[in-house]
């Protein structure tokens, strides 16, 4: 698997990250990682974290999204967004590399 296009982060995701950091008083970044597990084979791990040496950093208005070098190929051309619905609010990953996903949207499989 080769990286063709870096992931994109929506303005809505950056805005929500800014709100979270302001409310908590933290100076962290949003990390999006892909790990083995979940009901479909891979799952997203989304958390506040500090940058590491091998991270891709996507930055806007002082807010940063981090993606480690191992996760990066799995997130080629993905869109990281924030969704607020009646059932809850969360960061979501629209991943064109996923061929199947579970109902919760945090687990996926690749071809």
From TrEMBL:
It comes from the Bacteria. GO terms for molecular function: 2 iron, 2 sulfur cluster binding; 4 iron, 4 sulfur cluster binding; iron ion binding. Residues 8-105 form the Core domain. PROSITE patterns: HESB (PS01152). One of its GO terms (biological process) is iron-sulfur cluster assembly. This is Iron-sulfur cluster assembly accessory protein. It comes from Stagnihabitans tardus. The lineage of its organism: Bacteria, Pseudomonadati, Pseudomonadota, Alphaproteobacteria, Rhodobacterales.
């Amino acid at each position: 698997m080769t990286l063709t296009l870096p992931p994109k982060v929506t303005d809505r995701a950056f805005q929500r990250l800014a709100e979270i950091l302001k409310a908590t008083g933290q100076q962290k970044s949003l990390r999006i990682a892909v790990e083995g597990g979940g009901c479909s084979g891979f799952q997203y791990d989304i958390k506040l974290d500090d940058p590491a040496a091998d991270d891709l950093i996507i930055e806007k208005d002082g807010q940063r999204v981090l993606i480690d070098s191992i996760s990066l190929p799995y997130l080629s051309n993905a869109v990281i967004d924030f969704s607020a619905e009646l059932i809850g609010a969360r960061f979501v990953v629209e991943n064109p590399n996923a061929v199947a996903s579970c109902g919760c949207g945090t687990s996926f499989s690749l071809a």
